[in-house]
Amino acid sequence: MSTIITVKRESSGFGKYVGLILVCVSDSMGAVVGRSVGKIRIPGNISPRTLEGFTAFFAVTMFSVWLGKGEVVTMDVLGVAVVSGIEAGTEGIDNIILPILGGIIWL
């Protein structure tokens, strides 16, 4: 007689709120930091994004993932990197793209 053991990971519900977190928390912090202390412009970018704002967005998003899920795995780091890169490279449409992209990655 063989026994199959399965482990089901409980969903943290983070995916339901990721769009709100990305736009309301991460994007806002990136804008505040970028405008207040940002000095290093991201090269080749037509928008006025700064490295300091990008770093703040990345850090706040990573912290939010850790708080929401209770853990951060490699795919989360890659997801945060992709979302941060998209945010840094867009101007004006990032508040539409970020929730959609976040939902695709974390749902």
From TrEMBL:
GO molecular function, one term: dolichol kinase activity
EC number: 2.7.1.108
InterPro entries: Polypren_kinase (IPR032974)
One GO CC term, this protein: endoplasmic reticulum membrane
Principal localisation: endoplasmic reticulum
Keyword terms, alphabetized: Endoplasmic reticulum, Kinase, Membrane, Transferase, Transmembrane, Transmembrane helix
GO biological process: dolichyl monophosphate biosynthetic process
Compartments where found: Endoplasmic reticulum membrane
UniProt membrane topology term: Multi-pass membrane protein
Uppermost EC category: transferase
Transmembrane segments: 17-38, 50-68
Family to which this protein belongs: Belongs to the polyprenol kinase family.
Name this protein carries in UniProt: dolichol kinase
